[in-house]
Structures are given as C-alpha cells and as structure tokens.
Amino acid sequence: MAEALTPQQKQAVTNRGGQLLVxxxxxxxxxxxxxxxxxxxxxxxxxxxxxxxxxxxxxxxAAAAELRGKIARKLSEKIAQxxxxxHLQRQMQRLYLAKISTVHGFCADILREYAYxxxxxxxxxxxxxxxxxxxxxxxxxxxxxxxxxxxxAPEFRAFIESQGLGRDDRLVPQxxxxxxxxxxxxxxxxxxxxxCLRLLETEGTQxxxxxxxxxxxxxxxxxxxxxxxSVFRQCLRQMEGCGGLEKPILNISDTLHQLEALRKKTTxxxxxxxxxxxxxxxxxxxxxxxxxLAERVKAARNACKAGLEKKLRGFAxxxxxxxxxxxxxxxxxxxxxWLVEQFSQDYRRAKRSRRILDFSDLEQYALDLLVGKSRGTxxxxxxxxxxxxxxxxxxxxxxxxxVQDAIFDALSRKRRxxxxxxxxxxxxxxxxxxxxxxxxxxxxxxxxxxKAQPGEGRKVLLSHNFRSGAEVIEGVNQVFTACMTPxxxxxxxxxxxxxxxxxxxxxxxxxxxxxxxxETVSDTYAEEAAFAAGRIQEMLENGTLVRDKESLRPVRxxxxxxxxxxxGSAAGYFQRALESRGIRCAxxxxxxxxQTREVETLRSLLQAVQNPRQDIPxxxxxxxxxxxxxxxxxxxxxxxxxKGSFYDALLDSQEPKAAEFLxxxxxxxxxxxxxxxxxxxxxxxxxxxxDSLFAAMPGGETRTENLQTFxxxxxxxxxGTHRSLAAFLDHLDRMxxxxxxVTGGAGGDCVSIMSIHKSKGLEFPVVFLCNLSRRFxxxxxxxxxxxxxxxxxxxxxxxxKTRVRYPSLAKRAIAVRMAAQSISEEMRxxxxxxxxxxxxxxxxxxxxxxxxxxxxxxxRRDFDGGELLCREADCMGDWVLLAxxxxxxxxxxxxxxxxPETLTHGECLWRIEAPKPQKPETQAGIEVPKETVSMPKGLxxxxxAALSFRYSHTAATRTPSKQTATGRKGxxxxxxxxxxxxxxxxxxxxxxxxxxxxxxxxxxxxxSAMHAALQYIQYESCGSSxxxxxxxxxxxxxxxxxxxQGSLVRCDQLARFFQSEIGAKLRSGTRYLxxxxxxxxxxxxxxxEGLEEEQVLLQGVVDCALLEEDGITILDFKTDRVTEETxxxxxxxxxxxxxxxxxxxxRIYEMPVKARLLYFFGLDKFVEI
Length: 1169
Known about the structure:
The chain has 1169 residues and is of the alpha/beta class.
C-alpha cells in the first residue's frame, strides 16, 4: 500500500471531538488508518500519549496478535527515523502493557479486577466450548428429568402439549438453548423474556393487525404491493406507446387497480376478505409490434401472481382464528420461558461450582459492572475504567452485538472518544448473533466531519481499494450497484460506497473478470468442478499473467483459491477434479479426529484400559496395526474359550501374542490408577510406539499431527478440573456425533479450496467463485421456535385433535423478517467473496435449467431495474447474472435467454461465455490406453463362460420385494401405505392447460376431496344433506380439510350414499373399517412370470369394509366420470384391485368375503365385482 493517505484516510486519522464511525470498504487500509491514528496520539508534540492509554478491541485473538505486531513494526520505523525521541522508545516497552485484545479478553481482565463487586471468584477461568457443551448437556438432562418427574410443573406440561412435543421431545433441549442464547444477546436477558410474554397478551385485541406481528406482516405486504404497483405502471407506460394492445392494456390496468385496492385495506380481516385476485387472461396479438415487450409484460405479471399468492397465504385465516392460535401459543411460551429461566439458574450454579464463566457471562457480568443490573447509567467502576483510556478503538465493529456496543458506550466519555471501524457490507456473522443493524443505525444517523458539531457523531467513508486491480473493482461495483439496496444488503450501493482504485495498477492483457454460465446435464456439482479445474489447468499451462508488484508474472497454483458458500457438500468434487489433472490442492473443510484411524486406535486402547471386558474396543485394538492380530489369531483365541467376554478368552490363551498384549494392558491399567490423563496417554504411546508406527504409514506426517492434536485436546480437557479417564471417554462419546474437527493448513504450491467465511480478511491473486447456483439455505426458517429481538418468540400452534402443528402469526412474521435478513446477509457474503480477488475473478454458474434462469432475468431486468428480482433471488448467481446480462459482451447469455432492452459497457471488459455441456470424464481429459495385451490360452473361454452366466431368478431381481395393490391396479393411497415399496415411477409430461380448464377443479382434485371427507366424516351424523354439510364445515374448521377441499365436496352425493342400505348400516353402528392399511405376504405369481416360487410383501389401503357375522363386505369409493354405458368397463378396470383387498381382509380376519362393491358417486350406484 502507498504510504500517502487519501483525503478520507486523513480525516479518519486526524478527526477528533466526537464518536467517529469509519466505514472502511474492502481493501481500503483500515488497519493502516487505525495504526496511523494511534501514532498521531503518540507523536503529538504538545501532549504525547502512551500506548497503554488506549483500548484496542479486535474480533479474534489472532487479529489482536497481528495488530500488536504491526504496531511494533510501525514504532520501529518511527524510532529509526527519529532515534532521539525517547518517548517513542518507551512505547516499545509499553507495547505489551497495552490493552489490545478481544472484547471477551478485556471483559475477563476487568472482571478479575472487580470480582469482589460482583460476587464472582477472582480466580475464575473461561471455559472452552467443549466444556460448556458438556455442562449444558448435563444440566438440560437433569432439568428435563425433574420436570417430567414433578407433579407441580404445569408450565412445562403446557409447553410440551401446546407445541405437540409429547411423543418426541428430542427438540426440547435445542429449543431451550436457542432461546437462552438469544436472550443473552440482549442487555437484559430476563427483561427480554418477560417482554416476549407481554407481547403475547392479546386480551382486548379485535383485529390481528393490531398485534406487533400482524402489523409487521401487513407492512411487508404493503412494501411488496408498492413495488408491484410500480412495475405494473411501467408496463402500462411502455404498452401505451404500441398500437393494437388495447386488450392487454385493459388486463394490466384491471390488475393494477386490484393491487391498489388491496393496498388501501387497513385491517387484517379486510385483507383476508379481499385477498382473492382475478388476473383474467392476458393475450397479446399474434402479430404484436413488439413481441419482446409482450414477453416482458407476461413475465412481470406471472412473477407478480406467484409472489403475491405466496405473500397472501399468510392471510388465509381471519382475526378470530389468528388470535385464538396466539392465545394457545402464549401457553407454550410461558412454559418455554419457565424452562429457560430454570436452565439459566441451574447452568449458572453448575458453572459457579467449577469456578468458570462462559463467553456470554463475560459480557453480561461486564455490563453488571459498568451499568448496573438495572442497565441504567454508567457506574463509578465504568468511570474509573473509562478514565484510563484516551480513546477506545474498535475493529470489525459491524460484527458487534447490542451487549458489546453497550460496553463500549459505558466506557466512552459521553460517546466522544470512540473510534469505530468496520464495513457493514462485510457483516457475515449473523449466525453468531452479530447485529449489523447497530452499525447501520449509526451510519444513517452520523454526519460528515465537516458538518458535525462538537460531541456529535460523525462518519468517514473509506472507498479507495488498495488490494484489487481496476478490472475486479469495476466488476464488483457493477454487481452491487445493480443489486444492493436497503432491503437486500442494508444500504444503497451508491457512488459514495463504490470502490475506487487506491493505487494505479498496470492493466492485464486480457479480461480480469470472467463469468461462465454452464448448462449441466446430470451431476451439476461434478460438471461445474470439472470445468473449473479445466480452466485452472489452462491458466497454469498457458502462463496466465498476474501482478507481482510493478510487473507481471505467470500464475502459480498457490495464487489460486476456489471459494464456496458451503464447502462441506461441494469441496470433494473440486478436489477430485483438480487431483485428476495432477493439480495439488488443500481444503479447509477440516478433519474429524474421532474418525481417523490413528485416533480411533488410541481411543480403543483407552477404552480397553478403562474396561477390558468391552469386546468391541478390545477387538479393535487387537486387530489394529499396533498389535497386529489377524482374524485367524482372534478366532483361535475365541475357540479356546467360547464363554464369557473376549478378555476372558485372552486370559486363558497360551498364545505368545496374547501374553504380550496382556502385559502391556496390565502396565497401562496400573498407570491409570495413579497417573493423570495426559500421563496415561504418554505411557500408552511409550509402551506401544503407536506414534512411530503411524508416522511410518502413508500420510504419516498428518497422522502424527492428528495424534499430537488429540493429546493437546486431552491436556485442555484435563486443565478444566480434575478429570479421570472415565470422564474423558464419556466426553468423547458425547462428542461423537458432532465430531472433533481440526483444520489442516494449505501448504505451498497448491490451489486452496475454502469457504467464503474463512476467506474473510484474506486476499488472492486469482479467485474462482463457484457454486453460484447453490440455493440459499432456508432451514433456520423452519425451526420449531423462532426468535427476534423485536418480535420476540415465534411458536407453533397445534390442532389438539389431529396433533398437526402449524405456524402461529408470531412465527410467520418472524420467519418473514428472518428471510429478509438472510437475503441481506447472503448479499454481503457475495461482496466478501468478490473482494478477495486482487487480479482475476472467475465466476461459474451451473444449472440444468440455464435457459429458463437466463430468460427470467432478461425479461424482468428492465422493469424497476430488477429490484424485485433481487429481493426474490434464490441464489447468489441471480445477482451476478442480473448485472452480467446487461453488459454488451454478454452475447453468449443473450443467445440463450434473450437480450434485455438496455445494455451497458464498462472500461474493463468481462469474458462471458456459456460453454457447451460436457461430461466430467471428458473434461477431465481421461484417455483410454489403445495398446492391446495378449490373453493367456484358455482364459478367453473361461471369461466368456463367466460373463455369460445368467442368474436363474432374474424375474425376482427385477421385481420389488414390496408391492402395493397398485401392482395389480390401484391408487395413490396404496402407494403411500408402502412408503419405500420401490415401484418405478412413470414420467408424465405435464402439458399446460388452457385457462378455461385451469380455473376448474380437476377430477383428481375432486376425488381427493371426496376421499378425504369420507376418511374423517362421522358416519352416524350423515342422515341428510344438511347434516353432511354441517359435518364438512366441522372438518374445515378443524383443519381436517382445506377450505378448497371443503368447497369441492358434493354433500348431496354423500347424503344419497348414506341413505342407501349400506350407508344406513354404517350410520347405525355396524362394525366397520375405514382407510384400513394392511401388509401381507402374497404369492409372486400374481406379479409376473418367473415368480411362482417367490413371495412379495403386499401393502394397501381399503376405503371401507363392513364386518358382519356372516362375512365381510368390501366397499371402494370411486369418483370417476362414468355413464350407464361405461360403468361396466370402469368396474372391470378395478376388479383385480378389489379382489386383492378381499383376499387380504379374508386372510387377516379369517372370515369369508360375502360382497365386493364399488360405489360410483357420479351415478349414485353400487356395482358388485
């Protein structure tokens, strides 16, 4: 970086008089600014400061150590320039007294100093994550056991029952921890929990919109309608300039009026009543003057229709139902808060007994010290501590939470001496409960230094990028100017936020930004990885140039990184693709120590030492390379003593190898009685030479590192408190599922593969940004409980009759807000990824539906600049393509998906291509050797005989072992009864229906509604058409049927059936079965030739059966459209199906089947089979 400061950097270095927020874009030199600001204090001629008069907060310990080192180097430079300045020399001595640490490290320091004021042990230690995990698990287990055993825990039972967790409570510990951790991020955790309960008090509320959640959903709908109205107005303006479009204009105008009318509704129930939209038929003349305009308008209308239907699903129920659900979820919330409070108390006691604190304790106790438990004004302790510092400098401020920000405020002098530096566009740690809204609030509120009054907050924007070349900078700016808005990313990416080249770089001879849109055939990950590896190979072989200070040089493997949003699912594909081309690579995905052979062996040995009568670990260590017992050796030992454990057999064995093993085991068992855990591990390695053995194996260096890491892990575990071998093994058992993951280093001369999150703070000459088509992870939105700092707790409501769970209003509102926050975070993740590149940025988007994806973006881009498309994006690639498809060099994309109306060009060209799909094997360049080898005499005949072998039961191999009645002739419900029957699915082409048909219910929909009604209806209550209608209404209100299904049920047809002789028997209480699922073994001959000697598991569902003394009557309901002329043929199609049911029930109940009936509702007629 150049030594000269930009004007903005000078402001950030020299401005005083109020809290200063520095918004430092990627590569803008924020660390240099922070150090230079520090130096201006140290070298002030009038009032030179000392280093230990500053509090410097960083995000990680590594960053704190790096910052300390940079300050030391800067001081050394200053001292070399001015050796006579003794004050600077003294600062080198004070450097290690300076407070440069993480916020947790600083909190720990002041808590130890003031422990007596908070009644905490001054000699506390900070527990690591694994120790906290162990304590939490035990506390939760004890808490739930007490709750289940107690007869006086109504809150707990209310929570379990109201959330439908009675049969499966495995989620309960996760829910408690989630709410506990969310509460601890608030200034007053207890107060936030109480506020959550207060919000759920809805007494006196008449309309759902009066609740906080209803208002949030209505505001969200209003914003969406406003955007859609703007799009439709643009459509009309463009259409009005073309002749012959009167009918389409009328359709769009009518839809626009409906949207405007919907937006004017002010209550929840008004929206529920008016949510049905009539979009009509949008038909353009076949010879339209502007066919592209017609396509764009259709795309905008279809997007509105799909998006609005999705939004309005949340407005299906009226206020009465919504408020009733809220009252029910309030019962669960009270029970949940009770559980969280009990857990908090128990967890605190457990930690106190061990004299430990966790990270959230450090923050909360620090707040107690600095602002009191009432969270009021700063205390005398805050004044004392704050007076020690001239200034508080906070790095990575965008990743702070509310508690940390309150700590900084309490220490600052009326917020005058705080220097906060960060970049909200790089805030990507919401999953760690960081709150970018804190940064954004100050960013919007603070003014420029020129306008700021004394004591007023001010902000400085650093936008000059000293990392990347002009090619990458322009590419980044184009993508985020097009896509980043307050709704997607947190702010508008304006000229002020756009990156500028900090120092001039020499231009590259070819484009520095590349985008490849790949249409994949089958395995998207594999094909994309093969292409990326091929492009890397091409770069390396052709000597693609990258910058090296003032000159250019050929790229090397270590210059290249492949960034992935989620390496866990994709890194392996890229690793294999690179290695198949002879390119070394290193992944940062990490290794689970417990799954490595060397650690698994050592763990088995420890288990055998603890209890040798555990056969599995004992056999594991015996068969390992350490002792080398073969299968024959083990069998011989067991044959000598067939009773008891294998250890007993070892004791009776006369084998020399067994005697040697027992000698070693006895030595280790004696050591275990008196030695520490780490002492025992050292003895294990010394006695077995296990470390040397594994070091001599392939990958020995890595194996040795794994054993050393495991040993260090045991040391850390033992340092917690006095730990036994048994406690350590129990802990490893609990850690088995999540694993003990360690991350390996990349090494030199190899391509790196890492997650975008891990790349933050790093830079690379060449960045491959891949998997852009990977869909955003929305799993968090489907959690049992959702939390939000303003909207509180979102619980489910449960139908207590059917035990069906569905989201309450609160949960839906929180899910909508979380989805918006998640989209914004994904945008910021993309910004971090793209700004890692110094010289070259290569992006790949791979999809099996590439043409559709590009067509959608091209058509919707011109209306509202694609803002709605940005908000509705499914993946990062949508944003990149939105920017790229508008460039003049995107001809390859235009050829596939169409060309938007307006195109732009920049000073730096992109390379945009859409390569033809290729199979990964072809791309990998794998060649089949052409040389032939002579075959030994006679071998050819043997091979032919072996390869011509035909299995005598081939028919059985082609037939699933499970069948449904559909194997003969059946229905969807029979397939559902056999969840994994393995029947091959027939692919059907889904032709588009004409509009006049799509507005009508299909026969399949009508049939499903009738069958659903017959499944749940109370037969005895169906004496008349009115009674049937009341039953259907009950089923709809009870959510057994949807409203749409209820409207499709023909009550008159059902009433006529129940007035028949069979129907009267059902109403009168005759014993019957309905929706009866069965599974029986059937003869294979029914399913094809060659199966005569086989048996097949037959499964199915019988609609209804009457069980009378003289036999069984099988009844199957049919909703087919039949006439008197076609009913016989229809009955013939179902003959085998009904006979299957008759055979099954006859065998199950050991009764004769006296009648097999089909009832056709279309004719109100029984047909006997």
